[in-house]
Amino acid sequence: MTFRTLTLGAVSALAISLGASAALAAGNTSSVTQTGDYNDAKVTQNDGTQGASTITQAGNGLKFFHAKATVTQAGRALNLSTIDQLASSKGAWATVNQSGAAGNTSSIKQAGAFAIVSVTQVSSGVGVNTATIDQNNTKGVGLAASVFQTGDANAATIIQSQSDTRLGGGSSVIQLGDNNTANINQSGNYSVASISDVGNGSKTTFTQTGERNISMSARIGNNNNTAVSQFSNNNFSLITGFGNDNSINVKQEIKDGNSSTIMQNGDANKVDLVQNAGNASSSVITQGGSYNVALVTQSIVGGASTISQSGDRNTATIKQ
């Protein structure tokens, strides 16, 4: 099994890209502020470098989509998009599309129920793009956030905070490239987090503090790391990976009925799974290839663990 080799030198590539775009128009700036209900703001910035867009919407409505913001930036590099939708009602909707050389940044904050965010950042080769989404739901009904990034050295962060438990949040990150990072942090119940990536040298982190949450990771590439932390009852993690020298760390702590399913295909991969406290947690690990390592630690009552390895010179350890 062969995969694309690890690509480094993102900083140098970014410097070359920025130098090539220095002669272009730079510094387009826009600011939109709306107070009231059912507002719609659209900003489009084409060509140039270091464009900046800020949209602030504050209002109180009782229907879906009381505030809608759309930002499109198709310049060369270093564009900035900031959206604040901080009304305490329902239905904030934000869409950001950034394409260009590299170094674009998107920051979105939302408060209220039924908030929706979509961020797309497309770069060829080096990326160094950043997407940050912060959703704070005080109404107890669903949140949705998605990030799609291409290129190398991108970063995506999604934070979903809920004070009620009727309907959880949904988060999705897709990254195509090397040396990317993705972080999803969800507090509340019935939430789903998904991170998918193709590339090498990337890091993925899930943190969920609530009940009946799901973390899912699908990866293709080498030298990647996946970390999952779940703190409460009846949570589930599903992790699949194809490639070599990858590592997976899962911690399910404090409560009962947690479960994990991990599947790896490749050589020299590692799994470290810990299930602490509570009752009746379970794990299933399947590894295909050689020189793989699987370690399961269960400090629980009624735990169950299964490890299946096909290949040579593999190591499996279960501690109960």
* Morphology: flat
Task: Give me the side-by-side strand order of the main sheet.
Answer: 1-3-5-7-9-11-13-15-17-19-21-23-25
Mean pLDDT: 86
H/E series: HEEEEEEEEEEEEEEEEEEEEEEEEE
For the biggest sheet, the summary is:
13 strands, parallel
Q: State the secondary-structure class.
A: mainly beta
The helix count comes to 1
The radius of gyration computed from the alpha-carbon positions, rounded to a whole number of angstroms, is 21 Å
> Termini separation (Å)?
34 Å
- Number of E-type strands: 25
Task: Please bin the fraction of helical residues.
Answer: under 10%
Number of domains: 1
Can you give a write-up of this model?
The protein is mainly β and 320 residues long. The protein has one domain (10-26, 102-319). The chain is 3% helix and 58% strand. The protein has one helix at 10-20; strands at residues 29-35, 39-46, 52-58, 67-74, 80-85, 92-99, 105-111, 115-122, 130-137, 143-150, 155-162, 169-176, 181-187, 192-198, 203-209, 214-220, 225-231, 236-242, 247-253, 259-265, 270-279, 282-288, 293-301, 304-310, 315-319. The strands form two sheets. A 13-stranded parallel beta sheet has the order 1-3-5-7-9-11-13-15-17-19-21-23-25, with no helix packed on it. Strands 2-4-6-8-10-12-14-16-18-20-22-24 form a twelve-stranded parallel beta sheet, with no helix packed on it. The protein starts with 9 loop residues before the first helix and ends with a strand.
